[in-house]
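INTERNAL AUDIT FORM
Audit reference: QA-55
Scope: verify that the stored structure record matches its stored sequence.
Auditor: D.O.
Record contents follow.
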Amino acid sequence: MKIIFDLQIVSPMQISRMKHVELMCELMVAAHSEDVTNKKAALDKVMDSDSIRGRDLDKAASLAVTGLNRLRNMFPKLYQTRFHQLSDFYSLAILIQKFERQRLILNDRKRNRLAWDLLVAFSTGVDKVRLRQKEIKATEPGEELYREYLLTVLQGTDEISQRKKRVDVLCGLLEPLFLRKDRTRAFSKEQRRILWNSTEAPRCAEGNHILTWDDFTVDHVDPWSKGGHTSLENADLMCRRHNSRKGNRSQKKAA
């Protein structure tokens, strides 16, 4: 719940109406079903004690919290945009859950900054279209996507079809900036042998000391957790101690 408060998703009035609890329940149901749901159907499912139980409930809660943490880390000033509003936030949170399932990550600072700039620009564009509507002014050329998104917020906001449209629009906006983790993190026996036998006088990439067969590991030059591939092109030899100490830092590949 603290994450929702940190991002200023709910107002004091909404808190008094337990909207933060409703939102968390909806995100858990979405994590369990791996898709958006109708709001009423989602809340009914949570109220049904036989719908999600035991380990499934714990897993759904964990996935929802993981997605919220990732969202807060990427966009800590979300409250400056329209995406701190419940309907918009739900769609963005569901998208980040989807990216988590697909092993898509956004750890590069430049890409993260660009994603934030795009999100702010999109939010501003939708707000401008809404303001023109209130002033009974026509939509200007190039604002069709903003208008399409806005309609999903104004008409049947919590229906599945409208929620899916919002997620699809945001996915098209942000997905190209994300990197996909390799499905496999550990280097195979074949990759280890190839790298060892292709290296003359194998040395630790960090400590520069001679390695032995019993004390060498294969390290991701660009960390796997940040999208680095489990490939020979992204591999280097390292002793166990230095590999453990390096963590998820990037390093220059040994010549």
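Auditor finding: record pair retrieved intact. The chain has two domains: 2-180, 189-246.
Action required: none
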